[in-house]
Each structure stands twice: as C-alpha cells, then as structure tokens.
Amino acid sequence: MKRMVTWAALAACLAVMAGCNTLSGQPEIRKAAITPSELKPGDSAVITVDLRDRNKVVRRVEGVVVEDPRITFKLNDAGAAPDEKADDGVWSMAVDVPFQAPPGEYVLEITALDTAGKPVSVRDKNSIVNLLQAAVPIRILKTQ
Predict the structure, then answer these.
(1) Residue 11: in which H helix or E strand, if any?
(2) What percent of the chain has pLDDT over 90?
(3) Where along the chain do its domains lie?
(4) What is the DSSP string of 47-95?
(5) Are 53 and 89 in contact (CB under 8 A)?
(6) How far apart are CA 8 and CA 23, in angstroms?
(7) How much is the pTM?
(8) Hey, what CATH topology would domain 23-140 get?
(9) Contacts of 108 (CB under 8 A, 6+ apart)
C-alpha cells in the first residue's frame, strides 16, 4: 500500500511539473499588423501588436524596417494614443510615411524585449528556441 501511495504521489508531482513546463506559460505574439498595410508617401498608419504575456516577461516592443535598419519604432502599452488601454497586452504606435519614401515592398520586424533590453526567447513545439518576433509586410505605393 505504501508503495502505491509513493507512486501515486510521484505521478502527481510529475503531472504538475509537466503542466508548469508547457508552452502556454511563455509570451506569444498573437497578431502583428500595420493598418492600412498599403500606404502612400504622406499617409498615416497604426502599428499594432497583440501580445499574450501571463508572466510579464516583456517590457518593451520595438520594430525595425528590415530594408533600412535606421528606421525604428517603439510601441507602447501605456494607454497613450493610439493605444486604447494601458497594460492590456496590445502595443501600438502611430506612424507617418515620409514624403520621400520610395515605393516598394518592406518588412517591419517586431521584437519583444525583456527588462534588460534583450530580445525575449521562446521555445516552439519542437523545443527550438527562437526570438519572440513577428514580421509585418508593408507596401508603399507609387504616388500619382
């Protein structure tokens, strides 16, 4: 009887630990977008990142235009416009397309950062560690 109780206790402990070690506890970018996704020079848009972060690992969300890394963005979740509600996990920022922006296809790379300013790493379903990032396509149209 004592042996059965020991095995049952061990099984319960393993089940609890396995539940704590699941992928559900790590942060996740649910959706990242720029609205509208097709822009003309002089247009305004809103970058939005919906981030699930139960353990409050993410402290900043930043973006960079891959084709020109000098163009960076710092999104906010503080309730300052266009962010609708503070600390709801939806990070956002209003942007204006420069009048001199050349037409073409671009990628905005969004990265979640921790308290030390380092990119947050997450494990995928295959236990491969990746940065918590998302790529958002942007299209700058030619003006008439």
Answers:
(1) helix 2-20
(2) 80
(3) 23-140
(4) EEEEEE-TT----EEEEEETT-TT-EEEEB-SS-TT--STTSSEEEEEE
(5) yes
(6) 25
(7) 0.79
(8) Immunoglobulin-like (2.60.40)
(9) 34, 47, 63, 64, 65, 66, 73, 135, 136, 137, 138
CA distance 129 to 94: 31
Cβ within 8 Å of residue 50, ≥6 positions away: 29, 30, 31, 32, 89, 90
Q: Are 132 and 119 in contact (CB under 8 A)?
A: yes
Q: Is 119 a residue whose pLDDT tops 90?
A: yes
pLDDT of 125 strictly over 80: yes
The pLDDT of residue 131 is above 90: yes
Tokens standing for 30? Answer: 């649910």
The residue count of the chain comes to 144
Scanning the structure block, which residue is given the tokens 């379903």?
Answer: 125
Q: Which two tokens stand for residue 116?
A: 């030390």
